[in-house]
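Worked example

This section walks through a single chain of length 712. The input is the sequence exactly as stored; nothing has been trimmed or padded.
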Amino acid sequence: MLKMSDKTFISSFGKIFRSAIALAVVAVLPEPLLAGPTLNSYGVVGLLDMPTAESADDAQLSLSGSYFGGTFKNTLTFQIAPRLSGSFRYSILRSPTYNTWDRSFDIRYQLRYESRYLPAIAIGLQDFIGTGLYASEYVAATKNITPSLKVTAGMGWGRLGSHNGFTNPLSSIFGPAFNTRTGVVGLGGTPTFGNWFRGPAAFFGGVEWQTPMRGLTFKAEYSSDAYTLETVTHSFFTRRTPLNFGLNYRFRNGNQVAVNYMYGSQIGISGSLVLNPLKPQVRNSVGPAPLAILSRPDDQPRTTGWTAQQGGAGILRQNVAKLLAADGQQLEAFAVSATSVEVRYRNQQHENVAQSIGRVARILTNTMPASVEYFVIVPVENGLPMAAFHMSRSDVEELENAPNGAAELLARTDIRDAGALPEGTAFAYGLYPKFSWALEPAFLVSFFDPDNPLRFDLAARLRASYEARPGLILSGSARKRIFGTLNTVTRVSNSTIRHVRSDYGLYDNAGDPVIEHLTAELFFKPGKNLYGRVSAGYLEQMYGGVSAEVLWRPVNSNFALGAELNYVKQRAFDQLLGFQSYEVMTGHFSGYWNMQNGFQAQVDVGRYLAGDYGATFALDRAFNNGWKVGAFFTLTNVPFSSFGEGSFDKGIRITIPVAWATGKPTKDVRQLELKPITRDGGARLSVRNRLYEVTSEYHGDRLKRRWGRFWR
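Given that input, the structure is written out below as tokens.
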């Protein structure tokens, strides 16, 4: 005899089956182009609430928001690799009797792509690092029946195993322990290994039909989520049926909006902003074209008599400086002989280093006498010479229009450590000392404060810089609020260890105007393949003192090692000139690895601001156009219970080059760091101009991957 739940399941499945048959008949109409995978209410590729086995386009980054039944879900999802994706979600649940703010992480892997006869299959972990509010695991299969109709079937555990569940089939393989699943996890923030794929399981499924209207998809699903917390424990809404229906519209740029009818009682809405580092917003660069290569005629005499001309080197230097300035670059130093020239320059405009080097090479073919055969081009950052690029002028002339000319020139270019200045080097006129300043708007945002999840300030920022000599820079930045809500923090830190970061609200409330930083920085090269930095002053919002760093980084290596030592005191809450009594010695040994597939790994081991010891692990995917998307976490000797909510420090970081969005040549970037919660364990000093980032574009595989723009 069937139970009521079984009857509901069969009735619901029958409705889906009949709907699928009807849609299959309609699908014989002229077929529109497929809209591609769409996102569900959780901000991941899926149906309405349930996941599918598809993957988004490689490197797709989506920011999604959805609402129904008293719950807001805000999700950032990144397609880490063609088969692997990860998500960070911030959810707000509000009803007359219950409020909570929840942070969670998902990860999903596509086990196989769809083939002619077999479906795509994916496995996923939802809320696997969090409080467990949305914790679930699933296996899903998706198959395109026609170009406009696809179906999904899956099995879920946890929340996705809570409606019409049955005995976990894995228990017959791995033992009865797989029948038991615990509830919400205390402080959250730690992987719940003991719950994965445990407890009752349940089936889910659905269909998607691409309508004749381009971009519009109709969805129907059978959900295996009972929404017990929202409907039984608390009265967010009434769940009348496991069936959901909706329409999703995908714009040509990938952005999406959806309206859904959820669980027989609720209207749900969602929207997604979609970006992809592999797909620039502006297809063509709008910057000035480079100079043409001026090749020497074969019969042109390559005499060296010009070297006897009085002031000849100075004239050549002026000509190079003028053309560099016209291209948005600045001559630093210049040395020329009868057969070679070395140019040290500042790239002030081009986001791609190889492009800037190519433009310098073009300028040299237009300005150097015919006898000058060898070019040495040395980019300079903060007074530090980066790698030295030794190339033959004849190679530059020969390969400009050759098939695969950039790769061939790279193979012939000798890349070395930039040594001492050659004899006879002259610096550009008026370069030192140099003073510059700017008054500009500043927009600051704070996320995830439970009392006010989104706070912001619009401010005016005054910044100035004085370069006394190569590598010695005095700089400062001050900010005055125009309007905003950053100064409305009411929550007081409950941290049981030294408050080295969790008093951020006291800084935001007290400071206006503030000194953001006021420092003296010295950059130098202590030896071959070595870079050094010493910074002193008000280093960041909360700390001032002295920071010293050395980096070993061979120019042709994908590995680097660094060491940093800091002595700092905590700044006064008003962020002006005062200090508090707390002082600490902190520092790290760091290892860096460029994996040659676009991924970069970093490990920092040492002492943190609260005096705790541990290590930070980071992994970034770096794209050839300057985008970087990565994640990090820190484990120290602070127990999870003492750390507090979240258990340990973790976060996501994104770097977006402005040139990607505008098409205009610029080195400006926008950086975003998302940390689910700000606590005191694993907190590191924030220092400007750390050496690995300063040198990252000029070494190893990172440089070679971007060399294709040499001729641009």
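What to look for: The chain is about 15% helix and 40% strand.
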